[in-house]
Design a protein that fits this description.
The chain is of the alpha+beta class. The protein has one domain: 2-Layer Sandwich (50s Ribosomal Protein L5, Chain: A). The chain contains six helices and six strands. The protein has a six-stranded antiparallel β-sheet with strand order 2-3-1-6-5-4. A hairpin with a 5-residue loop joins strand 2 and strand 3. The longest helix is centred in the middle third of the chain and has 14 residues. The mean pLDDT is 94.
């Protein structure tokens, strides 16, 4: 992994629906973070309403501290399975926009400590890069192990 990581920020967010236990949802999100950084990452909680008037709670964290950003990226890169990395590579243009790389991770799998891509009701992770070109982001993601070589 490069010494000076070209990622300026990591955003992590997810929803807790009315049928879900907020504590368990937050626990699932924290399972995706490096254990030594959990105390340093605070989640903002906000309330919203779903399409049918159902209550939804949103948890969001913006991580800007360089050492924590690096630890989070290393944790994600080392725990994503090779098949998911291949999927990300094959669909990379769908995951990169305006200098950001987006991941959607399975909330249920995260609760069990597994890192797995998902589309429905995911934990969203956004890596904000200091560069905007798709080619640069792909190259950096390969260097850090987020994408296959």
């Amino acid at each position: 992994m490069p010494a000076a990581l070209p990622i300026s920020e990591v955003d992590v967010s997810c929803f807790a629906h009315a049928t879900e236990d907020e504590t368990k949802v937050l626990h699932a999100v924290r399972r995706l973070l490096p254990p030594m950084c959990i105390e340093s990452i605070s989640f903002m909680k906000s309330k919203a309403q779903g399409h049918h008037g159902n209550p939804i709670v949103t948890f969001e964290a913006k991580i800007k501290e360089k050492s924590i950003v690096k630890a989070v990226v290393e944790t994600l890169a080392s725990n994503l399975n090779p098949m998911d990395k291949e999927t990300l590579m094959n669909e990379v243009s769908m995951h990169v926009e305006k200098g950001s790389f987006y991941l959607r991770l399975d909330k249920q799998a995260a609760f069990e400590g597994e890192f797995r891509l998902a589309q429905a009701d995911p934990i969203r992770v956004r890596l904000r890069f200091k560069k905007n070109r798709l080619e640069d982001i792909v190259e950096i993601c390969r260097e850090i192990g987020m994408l296959p070589q």
